[in-house]
Structures are given as C-alpha cells and as structure tokens.
Amino acid sequence: MELSATTRISTILRENPAAIEAIVSINKHFEKLRNPVLRKVLASRVTIADAARIGKCRVEDFYEKLQPLGFSVASTPTHNKRAIPMETDVLERPAFMENLKATDTIVLDVRETIAKGDDPFLQIMDVVNKLSPEQVLCIVNTFEPIPLIAIVRPKGFEYYTETLGPNLVKTYFKRQGVGEKLEVADSRTEENFDEVLASYSDTLQHIDVRQMEMPQPMVSILNALETLPKDGALYVHHRKVPQFLLPQLAERGFKVSIKEVGPNEVYLLIYR
C-alpha cells in the first residue's frame, strides 16, 4: 500500500493492524490509538498530515515507521530531496491561528461546568452555530475534547489544540466557509423506558459510570458496546444525559431510552 500525507489513519490500520504500535512509537499523543473506541472515533477522520500536526512531528516520521511494515511512499523520485511531502504547514499552527485576533475570538471555559457534573454540549453547540466565518471559538478544558472534534470537524471546521499544562487545554475551532446550522444526530427514542427494559431482561448488561471523570464515561460506554450482542442491551447508570454520546450512538446504529430519576441520577438503556 502506498502512503501519502492525505492517507487516512483508518486505512493504514485496516491494511496492517501492527501499524498501531508503529504510530504510537512516534509520539505519546498517539497512544489514544490503543483505545478501540477513540481509534474508531478519530482514525477515520484523521489523515497522516492531520496526525503529524496534532503530534507536532513530521509526515516523514510516519513514513519511516511504516515502511518496515511493508508500506511504500507515493511518488518519491530520488533526484528531489523534497519528494516526500514535508508538509511544513502541518508542523506549524494553521493559518487562522497565526492571524488570530482577540476581537474575533470567543472564549468558552467549560472547566467549572464539567467540575459540577454538568454537560456543556448544548452550550458549545449553540456558540458553534452562531460563529461567523471570521470568528474563532476557543474551548478551555482540562482535556482534549475528542468527542466534540469528531462531531464538528467533518462539518467544515478547522481545529487546533494546545496543551498548556496538565489541566489546561485550549482547542480552537474555525468555520472554513459559510455553512448551515450544525444539526447533530440524536439516538433517543420515545419508547417507554420500562417497557424496553422488560423486553431485554434476559440479555441485559450493566455499567455504572457515575464516579468517572470526563471523558471516561463516554469511552467506557462505547467500549462496552463494542462487545454487546446484537440482541442485547446496555443498562447505564449515569449522573446526567450524556449529550456528546448521543450522536456517537446514532452514528453506530444504536437507540437509547432515557429515564431521569433525580438531579444526579439517570438511567440509559442502549440497544439496536
């Protein structure tokens, strides 16, 4: 298989699963690929060039690690030292960051919201849908918002993440052109929770994510769904309705019935 800067990571992993460890060895940023859920969320959307920018490394680093596994590099004439794409723009911050103006930047700090156990999803999406092509949204968080990136990036947004400390991560989003309102798929069903629960009483699996810090609840739920039988259902004990999770469930063909029983107690029943 020939590689280029635009080759998607998912394509590489399908060709040779051993590429996971080869890529992880390039940079600690790529350790997420070891997690099957995060791998599924990101790998299909990220190219070698994207990954190089995220990991602050060279596109050539990928070529060097993957060639021993049988991969080749597309169009590499020996007379041109720059034949292997250097993608210098990938190594630097994107253009919109270089020209960033404070007056055009909307800063949304969601750390306190998350610390209180609330979900900032609807607040973020409201701001995203109001962004003009000239504006940039800066999300301040304690971790890289992988679920948000997975939702927003395919809809025509550029993004850039800066890790400024152990608990300080800033992620910037900019619309690439005039776009329509971002509609997010919702997997919720209006079926009665107790009736659905009764129909899966013999094939029910349980998971409690109430004590987990974000984004671990979403990761744990999606991990559990990876091995869920087709005729089974996953019963989730949660603190809140996980708004970021719902579009991921819809994308995977799952339905979810929700029962809110208290301020910090929500039951989810996830099934096909």
Largest sheet: 4 strands, mixed
- Average pLDDT level: 83
Q: Which structural class matches the secondary elements? A: alpha/beta
Give the CA-CA distance, first to last residue: 35 Å
Name the overall outline. globular
Poorly predicted spans: 76-91
List keywords for this structure.
globular; single chain; alpha/beta; 4-stranded mixed β-sheet; 10 strands; 272 residues
Description:
There is one protein chain. This protein is an alpha/beta fold. 34% of the residues lie in helices and 21% in strands. The strands form 3 sheets. A 4-stranded mixed β-sheet has the order 3-4-6-5. A 4-stranded mixed β-sheet has the order 7-8-10-9, sandwiched between helices. The protein starts with a strand and ends with a strand.
Provide a quick synopsis of the model.
By secondary structure, this protein is α/β, with parallel strands linked by helices. 34% of the residues lie in helices and 21% in strands.
